[in-house]
Design brief:
446 residues; alpha+beta; Arc Repressor Mutant, subunit A; 3 domains; five-stranded antiparallel β-sheet; 14 helices; 12 strands; 14% strand
């Protein structure tokens, strides 16, 4: 069967319905400016899906991590084995008994559905179905999915996505909880089903007063609410959430409509980012042992310290002058640049960026002192799906644009250079965000 054309003339829903009704076996390839996706069918049922530009939340390891089927350490160990053996991550984790067959089967199904449901939102693109006698898939771990059930869920998403996007226009929005969250309670299973079945086209409600009744939310909305911290954008919340892109954004829409969350101000985002960076670093404790032969050198050491030029109690030379702020800023930039190079080295070796800078210290890549600036403050490190950021403060503890490194990930022909003066602005007036201009690297300190 020769089936090809554009999605403007023949929608994805029509293609799925035709393949399902005729119980065809083969591979459907869809191409657009966003991605290239292949979907495998066996007798009209979906048995696989893959994406050329696979997003972080679509990767099997990330799906297992979000559902807490594996730990970060187990996933990192499996990725290292994969680099040596080229074996699939799921089979490695299964072989080492890190996950069960049922957990891997559910994760593979969620991975397939996430890729397919994203294609349902494409407004343009080309498609081609290649009919085959058989398709290659893991029959032991993948259960064929009915095209009809995928069509029903895809149609529901197509109806509700425009409503969600009216309140959440772009994935860079950052939310904070409102005082109304103190009045929430989790609905029971039957009530949760009723709440989830409510129409999405809700009007925003005013925050409840102190004497009003409790606000009932579903367990999914409660779990998504726990991810709203004033520092994570919608894109990052989707990456952390175990419920997939649509369910997570739908929960955010409902929380926003019920005045349980609101957009964060710049001050709130800055404070939340600073607190998250401070909590992410824990200084390791070291025990110092003094060798026996050093006891005789203690008097000499005390005299040398007393007469040191930088000692404020030096009786001969007096207190030493403080280092100029520009010298300390240059020192801070040098430390940040070393941390920046270590982050990229970790990505090349392990295949992913670390969650915190403290992970580099734990692995012995960086010394503990490189994570703090000359004034003793921890550098802020933020990892997101499409970017990484490393920032520092000046002598007064104020964020300094000259102490900022930013790089976008997963963008081809990206010629942006990390440097000073980078500022992220959300799009206004419903327009899509423009690509930020190239920012020159800061000059070397004189």
């Amino acid at each position: 069967m020769a089936l090809e054309g554009t999605l403007r003339d023949f929608s994805l829903a029509d293609i799925f319905q035709l393949i399902g009704l005729q119980r065809k076996t083969g591979v459907l390839t869809l191409r657009s400016s966003e991605d290239v996706v292949t979907i495998s069918f066996l007798e009209g049922k979906v048995v696989g899906a893959d994406s050329l530009n696979k997003r972080l939340e679509d990767r099997l390891g990330q799906v297992l991590l979000k559902t807490e089927a594996v730990t970060k350490a187990e996933l990192d160990a499996a990725l290292k084995v994969q680099m040596e053996t080229l074996e699939r991550v799921g089979h490695i984790l299964l072989h080492h008994a890190a996950i069960s067959r049922d957990e891997l089967r559910k994760a593979l199904e969620q991975q397939i559905l996430q890729i397919i449901f994203r294609v349902f939102r494409w407004k343009d693109g080309d498609y081609h179905f290649s009919q085959e006698t058989s398709v290659d898939y893991d029959a032991e771990l993948v259960s064929p999915l009915s095209s009809e059930s995928i069509l029903m869920e895809g149609a529901r998403m197509l109806d509700e996505w425009p409503i969600i996007e009216r309140r959440i226009p772009h994935r860079g929005v950052v939310f904070v909880p409102t005082p109304a969250v103190r009045q929430i309670e989790i609905a029971l299973s039957a009530e949760a089903d009723e709440l989830e079945a409510m129409d999405l086209d809700l009007r925003p409600v005013n925050p409840p007063t102190a004497g009003s009744s409790r606000i009932r939310i579903t367990p999914i909305e409660h779990d998504v609410l726990n991810l709203v911290d004033g520092a994570s954008a919608v894109d990052e919340i989707v990456r952390k959430s175990p419920f997939g892109e649509f369910e997570t954004c739908k929960a955010l829409y409902t929380l926003l409509s019920r005045s349980l969350i609101r957009p964060a101000t710049r001050e709130e985002m800055s404070l939340a980012t600073h607190l998250a960076a401070s909590e992410g670093f824990q200084a390791p404790s070291h025990s110092v042992r003094l060798p026996w032969f050093a006891l005789g050198l203690l008097p000499l050491l005390a005299v040398s310290l007393l007469l040191a030029p930088k000692n404020p109690i030096n009786p001969l030379l007096g207190p030493a002058p403080k280092l100029p702020p520009r010298v300390l800023a240059a020192s801070s930039w040098s430390r940040m640049w070393g941390d920046w190079q270590a982050l990229h080295a970790h990505s090349l070796i392990v295949g992913s960026y670390p969650d915190t800078l403290a992970d580099l210290v734990r692995d012995g890549v960086l010394p503990p002192g490189s994570l703090v600036d000359p004034w003793g403050r921890t550098y802020r490190y933020i990892l997101r799906e499409q970017s990484i950021l490393l920032a520092g403060d000046n002598a007064q503890g104020i964020p300094d644009s000259s102490l900022l490194l930013l790089q976008r990930l997963g963008v081809e022909n990206d010629d942006s250079t990390p440097g000073q003066g980078v500022q992220l602005e959300p799009p206004t007036g419903g327009q899509s965000p423009q690509t930020p201009p190239r920012v020159p690297a800061p000059p070397s300190p004189r």
